[in-house]
Amino acid sequence: xxxxxxxxxxxxxxxxxxxxxxxxxxxxxxxxxxxxxxxxxxxxxxxxxxxxxxxxxxxxxxxxxxxxxxxxxxxxxxxxxxxxxxxxxxxxxxxxxxxxxxxxxxxxxxxxxxxxxxxxxxxxxxxxxxxxxxxxxxxxxxxxxxxxxxxxxxxxxxxxxxxxxxxxxxxxxxxxxxxxxxxxxxxxxxxxxxxxxxxxxxxxxxxxxxxxxxxxxxxxxxxxxxxxxxxxxxxxxxxxxxxxxxxxxxxxxxxxxxxxxxxxxxxxxxxxxxxxxxxxxxxxxxxxxxxxxxxxxxxxxxxxxxxxxxxxxxxxxxxxxxxxxxxxxxxxxxxxxxxxxxxxxxxxxxxxxxxxxxxxxxxxxxxxxxxxxxxxxxxxxxxxxxxxxxxxx
Length: 393
Prior knowledge:
The structure is a single chain. With about 400 residues, the protein is of the alpha/beta class. The chain folds into 2 domains: about 5-195 and about 375-390, Rossmann fold (3-Layer(aba) Sandwich), CATH 3.40.50; about 210-370, Glycogen Phosphorylase B (Rossmann fold), CATH 3.40.50.2000. It is built from 15 helices and 13 strands. The strands form 2 sheets. Strands 3-2-1-4-5-6-7 form a 7-stranded parallel sheet, sandwiched between helices. A 6-stranded parallel sheet has the order 10-9-8-11-12-13, sandwiched between helices. α1 (about 20-35) crosses α15, α3 runs parallel beside α4 (about 110-125) and α8 packs across α13.
């Protein structure tokens, strides 16, 4: 087989759009390109070539950066069109450049990994499948009516992609077990690699806490937003004095914005913010809210969890105590776990006001462990090991 490239990294949301995982993969690509013909296939969502030039990054990397038609605020149809366009562009690029080894992550899920599967099958190439979220199972939690023939077909399709991969990278043991529950032959080589956390730096002014609680990330259906909104409303109507800050976007962003207008002195909504702004909000809060649907914990691990932990802010985990997220918070002494129901959460807020519960300081050994395991350097080193292992086979 006439392979023109040695390696291709297929990643729709690359650096600088993704300043954490994308930045880590840029380092991996730079390392690979010093030894091999390495190509990055992505979308040019933030003047990629201009930023690479100004930052003097990406030397020797071969880029195929395709035009992005959509943003986070685009309509559903435009985003679907953009997904199909990117998948077609990936296939054309792979066929033209014919890499021996392809890395693909679940961003976007299913369609682009399937494109890589088709290419690898036709051209006898290998691919690394980075399963950061398990679809369509995670999607079915959001859309229960989705279960049926379409769900079974897409799950079969993703199972096929997993089974054909030369190796799989995922986040937790629970996610590996969920893959195996599909009844497929999961590749013998499975690596568990933590996504890196955003860099946490102390606030320059050393200011005291401005908020009692903060939430950063997707204001979506899997994050118990209706529960939080109801509890905060009841708590504040009953004379609660705590302050709540929200940053991010999602289907409940308008309701959070309305809540902030209803209680302008207690609820603050910042919309979508930069990584540095998110870090500042977290550091200036007593508690970081981590609400998550129990079933989702089998198929994903909230990306903001590590950033919360590294900030040193106590985590208030709102989910079942049996989930891997709750066990992780409890085991490492990072905060408290509260059942996802109105009375339990309302009782927690009032207990904080009464002084019977206080934020939990981190132990020094936990800080050191988290700093190492969720650092960009650790992520890059582990990814380099996986690529080296696959290239040598």
